[in-house]
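In keeping with the milestone schedule agreed at the kick-off meeting, the structural modelling team has produced records for the first pair of proteins. Each record is given below as a sequence line and a structure-token line. The laboratory manager (R.T.) confirmed that both were archived under the project's standard naming scheme.
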Amino acid sequence: MSQPVIPWYKQRWPWILMSGPAIVVVAGFITLGLAIHTSDSLVDDDYYKKGKAINEDLARDQQAATAGIGATVMFADGLSAVRVLLNSQDGKPLPETLLLSIQHPTMEGMDQVITLRQEGPGTFTAPLAMKGEARHWYLRIEDPERQWRVEGEWKPLNGPMIRLVPNLAPADS
């Protein structure tokens, strides 16, 4: 008349209750594996030196603004080539080459620097091999001597063209 006692390991509830902590332990090991095998390129090792260079970078933006430099960047279908139309209002001759930096916001391995060659007055081109697809890129064009720069953010979903201008942030008040 008494029912036989079923051992705990044959009952359902202890296993359901133990599955939660077991899942957390497995997820912890997966997270640890990802942390070990992927590098974190968001933090610069020499942030103090990089911070001191900000004033030099701002001077480059000011130099571009003073010269009236602006650029229109156009990407070919399939991102196989890039064309840049550069204009300058100070009348100085444009350099024979320009540097185009294409930077991913978080994945340093997708960044690249391309040398653009002048093919006509104010027109620069180069073949392009994008290292991956993304919805957001930072673009910077600068002269080979790094005296000036124009930059901007490009979102491919907004179209294959972007206008780059000097990045003159307002002074803090």
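The second protein of the pair:
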Amino acid sequence: MSLSEMSLMKRLLTGAAVAALAVTLAACSDEKKEETAKAPETSQTTTSESASSTPATSTSTGTATETPATTTTTTTTTTPAAETAQKPAVELPTSEGDVDMAEVLKPGALPDMALGEANAPVTIVEYMSTTCPHCAAFHNNTFDAIKEKYVDSGKVRFILREFPFDPRAAAAFMLARCNPQDTTKLTEAAQYFPMISMLMKQQETWAGAQDGREALLQMSKLAGFTQESFQACLTNQKLLDDVNAVRERGAKEFGVAATPTFLINGKRYSGDMSVDTMSALIDSML
């Protein structure tokens, strides 16, 4: 390994990345969007007893005739109250501005990692950082449900783009991009998304580890990397430059300043979204 490669490895994975992680935790938080990052609280509606708890009753009584036998028939009809109160509608998040989706979808430094039909009526482009806890919250709690409900059904095309805030995040993205069997080739979406999912689920294990290189190495071995392919991937200067170029384009051209940021059918939203919130937003565009 050359001196330049050693320098790159040190910059990516030494303890300096731990200090940079503190910047990430601040940068990826979006205080302005705290309310839209979570599903709005629902208020419980109680139906008053006088309005709905008392069933409506109608009674019909037969008339007695002069015959010895008198028959009286009583019929009671009960209208039950509503079984449950309706759940309030989810409040849609507020857009932070418009973006030109034709420009957003133009090819960049790296091929887009995309799931779903190319002609889906809704396109979501997420800019995220692998060391951002809000991004982990979205991918761990929301992404799978959205994929099953909308991506797999052809309603949404989901594109994920790199926006690393620190060297350790960049290293994780590089590993997600590398083909573990041949690091001179880039991986496909079918391998990329599972790697990102694993990194998000185990974020606390590797993102804040004292020895970032060792933590990422152990994670990468689960994805089929060897120590040699791991090192080859992380010393690929062109790949690092391309990952950073994706981030810079997002910031300069589309106004991305926090993670996660979603560009959805020409609108920009930032902050984690719950399943209910993102579902409501997608439904409003279908």
